[in-house]
Amino acid sequence: MNDKNDDLNKTNHHSPLASNNDNEKLIIKDEILKINDLIKDKFHLPKLDQNIKDKFLVIKKSTFELKNDFQDQSLKISSSIKKQEDEIYNLSETNNIKSDILENQKILIETYKNNKNQLQSYTLKLEKKLAEQKSSNRNFLANNTELKSTVSRFIKHNKNLQNDINRLKQAQSDSLIHKSRIEEMSNQIKFYQEDNVRLSNEIINIQKKYEMIGKSPSITHIKEMIEKVAPSDARVLITGANGSGKELVAHWLHEKSLRNKGPLIEVNCAAIPSELIESELFGHKKGSFTGASKDRAGKFETANNGTLFLDEIGDMSLSAQAKVLRALQESEISRVGSDQNIKVNVRVIAATNKDLQKEISEGNFREDLYHRLAVILIKVPLLNERRQDIPLLIQHFSKKISEEQGTVSKEFSKNAITMLQKYDWTGNIRELRNVIERLIILSGEQVSENDVKLFASK
Question: CA–CA separation, 456 vs 458, rounded Å?
Fold first, then answer.
């Protein structure tokens, strides 16, 4: 207990609160000593007075409370002292740094002053040298006016030269662009030339295949009509007997028209069953009738931007005629089994071997459709009406058949030709071609009158 009191005295000696609590602590100390003595005597006295006992307990409790309070105060004081010491230390460190900074500032200021003085000295020397150089240059230019003029001309010439160089560069650039364009145009021209050659060959082949042979007045008249009508989009109705050459006229109308790069679609109306003609012309939707397993475009759609040739239109059913009439009026069609309208741009050429006026009177052909089709009427004559063209036709077919069969072309004797001119050609041009092919195959080196009697008789 005495050791602890000594520690308390030492702590109080350093604490700023010690002077205020000295008297109270001395009293407590005396009380504690008295209590200790009483505790020692407790073991010798058999029984203590109850009042003394209670007082002892109260004092003991107070002593512990004062002790705890004293310890708390001591810890706070120690913490405060430690904090103040740290602040003093930090403050001393800060003062040392400030001192170093001030010293460095002094050194920097001194260095700056020295550098500034040196710079000012150097600047004065440099200004002096520049002034001397300017004076020298002025004297030089003043004494050398010719040189000055030469320099001026050189500068001007240099500018002109630079402008020329820029113009040459621009010209070179333009030249490269033009060269590229020229090459591009050359390629296009080459392509078009090749395409023209191809088209020309195709036209020549078509013209050979569908060439109209003859110089009779009737054929000459048809050729003249074709030249006039072909460039237009007018519908044409071609009439004539079977085998007279209606198909040739239709092909010539297409090839000489502005639509010749588009398709020429042929439909033989007599060869298609009446229940299928509408599907053939206008197409159908899948499932619209038995056998319609998929959607199919009709001939009107296929011939878009080209020509549709309706051969033997007199054999078309009335229901199909009504749809064709609508297509011609509205320039649109609808597929079988569909309500959707499809725009078409088609030139229609029709042909028939029937007398449509008679068919109209008998109720087999629509009069309004006839007037839609017969904007231009072209009647192809019978072969019996143009017998003077038979020698030219014999020569043409003989050459063509020999080329097809790979044989030497055979000549026809005058008597053979005369005999053929006298025949009754009910089958027209088609019959004549078949007879010529038969004679070339069966005759000798030359087709004679006897060959005609043997192989061309009906």
Answer: 6
What count of other Cβ atoms lies within 10 Å of the Cβ of residue 63? 14
Cβ neighbours of 421 (radius 10 Å):
14
Q: Please name the residue that has the structure tokens 């054929």.
A: 219
Q: How many CB atoms are located within 10 Å of the residue 51 CB?
A: 8
In angstroms, the Cα distances linking 369 to 48, 320, 338 are 152, 11, 23
Which helix (H) or strand (E) segment is 342 a member of?
Answer: strand 342-343
pLDDT tens string for the chain (458 positions)? 444 444 444 444 444 444 445 666 677 667 667 666 655 554 444 444 565 556 556 665 666 666 666 567 667 766 766 777 677 667 666 666 667 777 777 787 777 677 677 767 766 776 777 677 667 666 655 655 655 666 577 677 667 777 777 877 787 777 777 667 777 777 777 777 776 676 566 555 555 566 889 999 999 999 999 999 999 999 999 999 999 999 999 999 999 999 999 999 999 999 998 888 999 999 998 888 888 889 899 999 999 999 999 999 999 999 999 999 999 999 999 999 888 999 999 999 999 999 999 999 999 999 999 999 999 999 999 999 999 999 999 999 999 999 988 888 899 999 999 999 999 999 999 999 999 999 999 998 899 999 999 998 76
Q: How many CB atoms lie within 10 A of CB 453?
A: 11
Rounded Cα distance, 316 and 318, in Å: 7
Contact 335, 299 (CB under 8 A): no
Range 359-362, long-range pairs (CB < 8 A, 24+ positions) = 359/314
- Diameter of the chain measured on Cα atoms: 188
| pTM summary value | 0.56
Helix or strand or coil: residue 286?
coil
For residue 436 the two structure tokens come to: 């010529």
Distance CA 373, CA 387 (A): 30
Both tokens of 47, joined, read: 């029984």
Quick one: which of 393, 458, 395, 381 has its CA closest to 423? 458
How far is Cα 429 from Cα 404, in angstroms, rounded to an integer? 18
Q: How far apart are CA 401 and CA 437, in angstroms?
A: 7
Q: How far is CA 123 from CA 128, 129, 189, in A?
A: 8, 10, 75
